Amino acid sequence: MTKKNNAFPKDFLWGGAIAANQAEGAWNIDGKGPSIADVCRGGIISGVADQEIDPDKYYASHEAIDFYGHYKEDVAMFAEMNFSLFRTSIAWSRIFPKGDESEPNEAGLVFYDNLFDELLKHNIQPMVTISHYETPLHLANSYGGWENRKLVQFFSRFCEVIFKRYKDKVKYWMTFNEINNMHKIPFATGACRIEEGPTKVQRIYQASHNMFVANAQAVKLGQEIMPENQVGCMLSLSAFYPNTCHPDDVFEAYEFRRRSLFFSDVMLRGHYPAYIERVFEEHDVQLQKEPGDDELIREYTCAFLAFSYYMSSTHKAGTPIQGTTGGARGIDNPYLDKSSYGWGIDPKGLRYVCNEVYDRYEKPLFIVENGYGDLDEISSDGKIHDSYRIDYVSKHLVEISEALQDGCEVLGYAYWGPIDIVSAGTGEMRKRYGFIYVDKDNEGNGTLKRMKKDSFEWYKEVIATNGESLFNK
Length: 473
Ligand code: BG6
Hints:
Blueprint lengths: L12 E5 L2 H4 L43 H14 L4 E5 L2 H4 L10 H16 L3 E7 L5 H7 L6 H17 L5 E5 L9 H5 L9 H26 L4 E7 L2 E4 L4 H23 L5 H8 L10 H7 L5 E4 L3 E4 L21 E2 L5 E2 L1 H15 L3 E5 L17 H19 L4 E7 L19 E3 L11 E3 L1 H11 L9
Parallel strand pairs: 1-2, 1-12, 2-3, 3-4, 4-5, 5-7, 6-8, 7-11, 11-12
Antiparallel strand pairs: 9-10, 13-14
Helix pairs in contact: 2-4, 6-8, 8-11, 12-13
The structure holds 6-O-phosphono-beta-D-glucopyranose (BG6).
């Protein structure tokens, strides 16, 4: 690897990220209600969801890796890796089992008190996603998810409860995981069952508007209840390139990118951007706004932009637009290697995205998801030699160091899935991201025993040296 300067600042936050529904299990324990993830087979992103839980079917989220029962052991291993940051979500249906109650479930609150205390005991700062693809199922089934304006009120109540409860334990909060995925996976992102059809675009933007109001309301509550803490937004922002320098490729790729940046434009700049008017006209979108919405959105903008980055996608004009990220692979990029899941590995794309969004917003950035999911084999020596993961992460970290030297303010890096969890895209266990292996298979068999992969010691060293070890190879 070329020698480059290590630019990680001393207070850079290093760690990992998970989501409650992909790790905790205990789906109906201590008063928790079902969430939309709990009726999904094949992963919440796949959107293959039953209306209600079918007792004869296997749902990976129901036990997941039982982080609920193993969190002390897992946090101890994160601490051993020197984490200073750990991002997780608070399962909304653990606190409000149906979502529309007026009183929270105390047992659910106690779990997160215990988890955050455990993290803090090890000097690991918790970071919270308020809604990570796990809206209470009742809000999807009885209200139609975020298409229904009433969710603003339910979400605000949830925020108020958790902000008051954890304000001394959690500094960084994010409202909705990958909110720009409303285009591609509205069920996971917004608990809306929106089929293809002439009203699809209208419905997606209306639900998104309701989420923008809820986001602004959360920022407002955050400022009132915990002024020393910060509420940010979170997008899926894998890089996006035109296929050639043909102006059609370039402009279509640009327009496509704006479909995603539209979300951060609203939540960080505080208003609907001019370009969206044309989109609304072309798709006959007529937003229903309530008086005061625009003012609220203008006044209460997010303090930082957090995002996930896994790959880049390449777009050729005239080809169908498949989505905003995740599986949005566009057409083949001959310059990139791919993971066995077909994700184009593009470390420099991460530097590109950091610069792109820092230029646009000049607000602090958090890389809260980046990682390498693949099939890990246990070797004959009983170990897991995941050099491909080490290679992927080290190259991405070097590019973050470059982005810092470019002037981007990046506050931290949370590796996605530092311990193996259920895949959101496929519902599999065998698509593993972890530095820690969990003995469990796709059918739910296994002891749940945790085991260190080679990447465990490697990441530990990276953090211990504040990135320096990346450059001393
Ligand atoms: C992100 C999601 O889109 O990608 C995570 O926020 C998800 O929940 C991650 O797990 C990786 O995707 P997958 O499909 O490999 O789990």
